[in-house]
Amino acid sequence: MKKHWYDYLWIFSSVYLILGFFNILFAWLGMLCFLIPLVIATAGGGKAYCNRYCGRGQLFSLLGGKLGLSRNKQIPAFLHSKWFRYGFLAFFMAMFLVMLFNTYLVFAGAQDLRQAVTLLWTFRLPWHWAYHGTLFAPWVAQFAFGFYSVMLTSTVLGLATMALFKPRAWCVYCPMGTMTQLICKAKNQ
Helices 82-108 and 138-164 sit at what angle, rounded to 10 degrees? Predict the structure, then answer.
């Protein structure tokens, strides 16, 4: 089978996580993974991002499939259920809004920059080495810390479900996939 340029987008996902580890401002690149699926779905491309361009899904396929790091077990029915997918999307969006609120507090001067990444929305990891001040305002870094937390958390959840179930088990309940699916349903009505 002939490889296409988009078959290598898993490299982008890997490099993104590595760069954010060393310089948190690279976390802003993750907005591409947030906005592009929505634009494609809105423009009539359906789930093309999920099916073809998602570097994270490709990374899980590579790690779980080709490298054999997945148990390749059936995905539990509850992960497929609407209540879980929509509930996880609502929770994910609530955490995203909290991240935006914290960014606003730094922007407004009501809170100092917190140089920490929160893993699984619970465990606060100090991340001081990844930011040393820049020409940008502190709120830019605060957004980066928050967004990297979201991306790292979703990657850890994806790796866990990849290891326990099929390689792309994360794709079943991915908030971006659920949002693009809702966009597609709304456009078809």
Answer: 160
Q: Radius of gyration over alpha carbons of the chain, in Å?
A: 17
Instruction: Identify whether the C-beta of residue 147 lies closer than 8 Å to the C-beta of residue 27.
Output: yes
CB 10 within 8 A of CB 59: yes
Query: Sign of dihedral through CA atoms 143, 121, 84, 91?
Result: negative
Q: How many residues does the chain have?
A: 189
Could you tell me if 183 and 42 are in contact, meaning their C-beta atoms sit under 8 angstroms apart? yes
Q: How many CB atoms lie within 10 A of CB 166?
A: 20
Q: How far apart are CA 133 and CA 128, in angstroms?
A: 10
Tens of pLDDT along the chain (189 residues) come to 789 999 999 999 999 999 999 999 999 999 999 999 999 999 988 899 999 999 999 999 999 999 999 999 999 999 999 999 999 999 999 999 999 999 999 999 999 999 999 998 889 988 888 998 888 999 999 999 999 999 999 999 999 999 999 999 999 999 999 999 999 999 888
pTM of the model as a whole: 0.93
